[in-house]
Structure formats: structure tokens, C-alpha cells
Design brief:
There is one protein chain. The protein contains seven helices and 26 strands. It is α/β, with parallel strands linked by helices. The chain folds into four domains: 163 residues, Molybdenum Cofactor Biosythetic Enzyme, Chain A (3-Layer(aba) Sandwich); 58 residues, Molybdopterin biosynthesis moea protein, domain 2; 84 residues, Molybdopterin biosynthesis moeA protein, domain 3 (Beta Complex); 74 residues, Beta Barrel (Beta-clip), CATH 2.40.340. A six-stranded mixed sheet has the order 7-4-6-5-9-8, with no helix packed on it. A six-stranded mixed sheet has the order 16-13-17-21-20-18, with helices on both faces. Strand 20 and strand 21 form a beta hairpin. Helix 1 packs across helix 6 and helix 4 packs across helix 5. The longest helix is centred in the C-terminal third of the chain and has 20 residues. It is elongated. The two termini are 36 Å apart.
Length: 404
């Protein structure tokens, strides 16, 4: 099977990835959930004209000159409207958030008045509408203020509450199960024996999935046997995983058993090698019941970069996000880069803003796919298309920002 281009691989992974069913959640549980349908305001905000400041509600026609005198006939506080109208040369003491009384159409600031018992003299003229928040200045009943596919921020929750929603229709969170494979892997805190390495991939993958709004399931480490690998695949299916992510065992060696184990469990493999660096030995398939499988390489950098490029958009698509793709940006290279071969290259790079505002992406010295230190230091991926010619420092390049 020839190497699949990155664009085609992503298209295959996203094909048919429809949003998961919706569910209702309390407003407090809506943070970072994805709206399943548009949210229309259930009320007008503010429902009536209200004062924006502490002062006195008056008729602007009576207060167009400094020195005008008014009789104070009452008081308005937030939540306690005045039950009478305001007439000629009358004023009502009003506080921020108070409903503007009938007849008044301006507010004179309290610091622009001189008080004498039940009378005031204004020291600054005013005009119609001054210091008043009109009814509906924020939004009106029926306005669509939050749209389906939006991932809700803290500010969105405040807005939804003001729109009078106690609960929200959101998409179910995708369930992502992570299964590591390899006799060489030991858990953090263990003492590795000869030829063993500490398992690290799953911690980044699960954190990445959770950051995108998924639920995660840790299936642990499967030994390099078909029985152990197939058992992990069945556990993913039985726990209702929408996505099974495997790490390791995706290459072509005698001990790389993931592909044959997946096929033995009924998974149809769409592809298993990609024209990219790092991450050529990556696979994708689907189980008849709907579970999608992404088989990542074992090398930690390859695993992370492939998950960033393919797993994240898939989670977003299943979550019903309105935008699933990473946003590309342009930057200037901070160092020379050699010509590329037939594989699309994603080079880990540091990122900084120059004094003039230009963004500088400097690929790290060593691009080996086992070097976690360089991955942790990177802030972006510099994208090099297949057969891209050599490029000098200062050249324009495409980048994807890494989570930070």
C-alpha cells in the first residue's frame, strides 16, 4: 500500500464523523461543552430603560442649562421602581440599575448637583438619553446570541444565564480509550530493566483529548501478544468508546501486532502508512458498531504530532464543533532549512514575536521522534510540504501552534 498523503488521511478519518447525540446539562455543567442547537434569548435585556449611574432622573427639557432647580419627589433603587411619573422640574433620586420613571428621559449625575433639603440644583446641563441604558440595548427576546457548534466559554455561560436558560442542550462528550502496546513499557515510578522504557505517550494523549472536551478511558499497557492486544480492543468496544487510540505496534515488524489484532476483531483498516514525518506508521480503521480506531506510532513525538493532527479534529467533529480544523498561520523562519523529501514534514519549533511584531518560528536542532525535551520546548509545528526546496532564515513558512 503506497503512503497516503496527510490531507487524504485526515479526510478519511473525518468521513462520516457526525456529531454525537445531544443531552441536557445544568448551566453550571456547560463550561467547554458544545451547543447542540442555537440559543435564542428568552427575555429582553434590560427589560426596561435603566439608569447607568447614581444621580437624579429628570426631564431633559428642564435640565438643558446649569442652575436649573428641581423638587425631589421620590427614590428609585435597583429592583424597586418608582410608581409615579416625573413632571416639570421634578426629579427622582435614582441608583445604578434603577428603572427610569415615566416622564424622565435623562439622569443627572449626583456629583453634578447641589442638594438643599428636598430640592437640587444642577451644575451641569444634560441631554435626552444621558446616562440611561435603553431597553434591549444588550439583547432582545428572540435574538440568537449563541450558535450550535459553539464550545461554551465562561462568558458564554454568563450570557446564557442572562438569556434565562437554567440548562442547555449540548452534544455528548466523545469517549476516547487509550491502549498502549509493548513489552518494553513500564509505568512511571518503576525501575526500568534492560531494554525497558518508561511509558509516557498515554499521559499526553489523554490530556489532549480531555482538553478538547472528551472523556478518556485508560486501558493500560498490553503485552506484545495478539491475545493481550485483542483483549484491549474488546475492552474499548465494551466500554462504549467512540474512539480507540492505540500507541505502538503500528509498524511492520514481527512484534507489531496491532493491525492484525484489529482486523481479527472486525476492524476495517482504511490505511496504515502516511506520507508524513514524524508518524509514517499510523493507521486508521472502523469497527462495524461505530468505534473509530487511530493507531499511533510508539515514538512519543510521532504519537503526539499524529494525535494533534488527526485525533483532535476527529474529537471536534464528533463533539459537533462548528470548526474542526487547526488554524494555520504564517511566520518567518528563524534558521535555514534543507530541502524536503516526499513526506510532508512537521518540524517542532520555538516561537517568539520580534520587536516589530513579526512571528519567528525556529525549528529545534534535533528533530528525532524520540526526543520529548524538544517537543516540550516547542510551541509550534513548521509545515514543510513534500519536495519543498531549501529555505533560508527569514523565509515565510506555515505553522500550527501547539497547545500552550
Amino acid at each position: 500500500m503506497p503512503l497516503m498523503p496527510v490531507h487524504d488521511a485526515l479526510a478519511a478519518i473525518l468521513a462520516g464523523a457526525e456529531p454525537l447525540p445531544q443531552e441536557m446539562v445544568a448551566l453550571d455543567a456547560g463550561h467547554h461543552r458544545v451547543l447542540a442547537r442555537d440559543l435564542r434569548a428568552l427575555r429582553t435585556q434590560p427589560p426596561q430603560a435603566m439608569s447607568a449611574m447614581d444621580g437624579y432622573a429628570v426631564r431633559a427639557v428642564d435640565a438643558d442649562q446649569a442652575g436649573a432647580r428641581f423638587e425631589v419627589i421620590g427614590e428609585v433603587a435597583a429592583g424597586r421602581p418608582f410608581d409615579r411619573g416625573v413632571g416639570s422640574n421634578q426629579a427622582v433620586r435614582i441608583f445604578t440599575g434603577g428603572v427610569i420613571p415615566a416622564g424622565a428621559n435623562a439622569v443627572v449625575l449626583q456629583e453634578d448637583t447641589e442638594v438643599d433639603g428636598r430640592s437640587i440644583t444642577i451644575t451641569e446641563a444634560t441631554s435626552p438619553g444621558r446616562h440611561i441604558r435603553p431597553a434591549g440595548v444588550d439583547f432582545n427576546e428572540g435574538d440568537v446570541l449563541l450558535t450550535a457548534g459553539s464550545r461554551l466559554t465562561d462568558r458564554d455561560l454568563s450570557l446564557a444565564a442572562a438569556m434565562n436558560y437554567p440548562e442547555l442542550a449540548v452534544r455528548r462528550r466523545p469517549k476516547v480509550a487509550v491502549l498502549a502496546t509493548g513489552d518494553e513499557l513500564v509505568m512511571p515510578g518503576s525501575q526500568p530493566g534492560p531494554g525497558q522504557i518508561v511509558y509516557s505517550n498515554g499521559y499526553a494523549l489523554r490530556a489532549m483529548a480531555r482538553a478538547e472536551g472528551a472523556e478518556t478511558i485508560d486501558l493500560g499497557i498490553a503485552a506484545d501478544t495478539t491475545d493481550a492486544t485483542r483483549d484491549g480492543i474488546r475492552r474499548a468496544r465494551d466500554c462504549g468508546a467512540d474512539i480507540l487510540v492505540t500507541t505502538g505496534g503500528a509498524s511492520v515488524g514481527d512484534h507489531d501486532l496491532v493491525k492484525q489484532s484489529l482486523e481479527a476483531e472486525g476492524v476495517t483498516i482504511a490505511f496504515w502508512r502516511i506520507a508524513m514525518r514524524p508518524g509514517k506508521p499510523m493507521m486508521h480503521g472502523r469497527l462495524g458498531g461505530g468505534m473509530r480506531v487511530i493507531g499511533l506510532p510508539g515514538n512519543p513525538v510521532s504519537s503526539y504530532v499524529c494525535a494533534f493532527l488527526f485525533l483532535v479534529p476527529l474529537i471536534r467533529a464528533l463533539s459537533g464543533r462548528s470548526s474542526v480544523h487547526h488554524a494555520r498561520e504564517t511566520a518567518l523562519l528563524g534558521r535555514d532549512i534543507v530541502a524536503n523529501d516526499q513526506r510532508e514534514d512537521y518540524r517542532r519549533a520555538r516561537l517568539e514575536a520580534r520587536a516589530d511584531g513579526a512571528l519567528i518560528a525556529t525549528p529545534v536542532n534535533q528533530q528525532d521522534s524520540s526526543l520529548l525535551g524538544n517537543l516540550a520546548a516547542a510551541r509550534a509545528l513548521v509545515i514543510r510540504p513534500p519536495f519543498a526546496p531549501a529555505a533560508g532564515a527569514g523565509s515565510v513558512c506555515d505553522i500550527l501552534r501547539l497547545p500552550h
